[in-house]
Amino acid sequence: MRKAEEGFSYFVKDGYPDRLGVSKRGRDVNFAVAVPDRKPCSLLLYRKGSQEAEASIPIASRSPYGDIRAVCIEKLPVEKYEYNYRIDGEVVLDPYAGSIRGRQVWGKECPEQDLHCGINVAAYDWEGDRPLEIPYEQCVLYATHVRGFTMHPSSKVRHKGTFRGVEEKIPYLKELGINQLELMPVYEFAEVSSPGETMVLGQDRFKKQEDRINYWGYGPGYYFAPKASYASTDNPVRELKNLVKALHKNGIELILEFYFPRETNPNLILDCMKYWVLEYHIDGVHINGGGTPIQVLAREPLLSRVKIMSEGFPMDEIYPRGYCPSFRNLAEYHEGFLGTARRLLKGEEGQLLEFAQLIRKNPEKSGVVNYISNHNGFTLADLVSYDEKHNEANGEDNRDGSSYNYSWNCGEEGPSSSRKIRRLRLRQSKNALALVFLAQGTPLLFSGDELGNSQQGNNNTYCQDNELGWICWNNGKGGRVLQDFTRRLIAFRKNHPIFHQPWPLHVTDYLSCGYPDLSYHGNRAWYGGFEHQNRHLGMMYAADYIAANSQGNQRDDYFYVAYNFHGIPREFALPRLTGERKWYVAVDTSREAPEEILEKGQEELLKEQKTVVVPEHSILVLIGK
To answer: Residues near 613 by Cβ (< 8 Å), separated by ≥ 6?
Structure first.
């Protein structure tokens, strides 16, 4: 043990190399950092608010632990200090820092040389909190951006654009029926770049930012530190933990999205995931980026009950043949559903066969997340209002963003004064939501879609930190109608386990009960009619399989869902039900609000039990009871 240097009254000793970053070791504070090639390294300590280092503590270049250097300081009053490292003469931030000081103000340019790392070893009272472990099939996922969720003046929250602002909206999420919240990157990233700094904006990298801002947050970041400008206080760590705890108390899981560039160290990624689970009690992660060691994450014992979402998983390389996990923690973020559902919604031919497979997709070993809109692409309101993207506001001559949106403006580009067009757009929005919420798997609702939120045809608002990129909470009567429909549709799904089964559907009568678990129908019963030109399909779900597969713990009725995306009415043949069962109307998207979804027990008896005519651009759900 030695006194660090003149004027610095604390003692230092050799540290512990087992955990990178800063950690508390009894009375000591341990600092550990990876320094390759035995380069000279010093720990710099700053008094909070000072840019001048109070102490520079050399760390021996010869370490018995490879490239890891570590030092301990005895009884350091961590609330008074910040730190950086000087490696080979250059002052650098700790990639494992638990907080970054200097970026507390959103949109303010702050070069890295002016930033310091915070020392976060204070205890936090979790009050017995733990992750919720809600099975995928019971989840209703809501995806949003911390800042954009509440920044609009219409959000009516006190702490706009912050973690506390999200917490203020928990009652809204709970009333809507949400039990899983996904947030776009909440770790520290540079929304404003310094001169010469590379940023990832949209789908491209730029050396010069000009007047664009990295609003979404994709790109390199300090992955262990919650974003300081997303906090309403000077303690983003505590504020984010408060949000997690409040969500859990209300039965809502938290999923965090991470983007890792291809060059990111795989060990850092694994350490990062474990850190957020242990330190913040998060329920899951959505991983983006080409450098992610997805198989390693999937096999990590600590993460075996943590939800891991990604574009896909090599299941044969993760689980031994014949093995099925007791808790499905992996899930495919299913962009393929988006394309097929959108093309069918607008009435394209040749989509039925693919759609019939996607809507029942529910793998035994993993979950699947279905969505028809997300931050990357049109909002739901724009999906039914624009044929073309309108990204001129991004300053890239409308070249950014995908040109393949599979959208239909219902007869007029952009806002319309035509009552007929507005009614059709509202019906198409309801159809789109029904496509997602009547599919097996986990439905994802992109925030604002339930309110009719528009981005004026911009399908790539990566740089729009303004009312174009924020959610408008007041979209008139149409927005209120859609919001109420969404709430009731979510409740309908939750009330009927047949639409969120935990096991695969086989399209066979494996119980010998007289009906397959799922069957396809069309103009004729028991014939799906998957011809290329068809855009209508009936799907019957048999109730017997719910009770059998759940060992009698659950019950449900028979259901027949008729999808008609033709521009004319179509007739569907109805299978005959056993005993005294008859078909009743439960959901009809062609009806005016609030008659589209009938309350349980108030369903209307269908007059004709052999056939039913479904209006154009409509979805009809019949219940057999």
So the answer is: 569, 570, 571, 572
Which residue, 433, 427, 445, is CA-closest to 172?
A: 445
Q: Shortest CA distance to 407 belongs to which of 357, 461, 355, 345? A: 345
Say how far apart CA 35 and CA 443 lie, in whole Å: 44
- Interval 81-109: pLDDT, tens: 999 999 999 999 999 999 999 999 999 88
Give DSSP secondary structure letters for 101-153.
ES--STT----GGG-EEE--------TT-------GGG--EEEE-HHHHH-SG
Amino acid at 26: G
Determine the residue type at 576.
R
Tracing tokens 């979790």 back to the chain, one arrives at: 126
73: closest CA among 39, 38, 23, 123? 23
At 182-206, the pLDDT tens digits run 999 999 999 987 544 443 333 344 4
Orientation angle between helical segments 236-249 and 266-280, nearest 10 degrees: 60
* Token pair 């009938």: residue: 598
Give 494-529 pLDDT, tens digit per residue. Answer: 999 999 999 999 999 999 999 999 999 999 999 888
Round to whole Å and give the CA distance between 283 and 270: 16
Q: Exposed (0-12), middle (13-18) or buried (19+): which is 290, by Cβ within 10 Å?
A: exposed
CB atoms within 10 A of CB 72: 21
CA distance 246 to 253: 10
- The answer to whether 525 touches 574, Cβ cutoff 8 Å, is yes
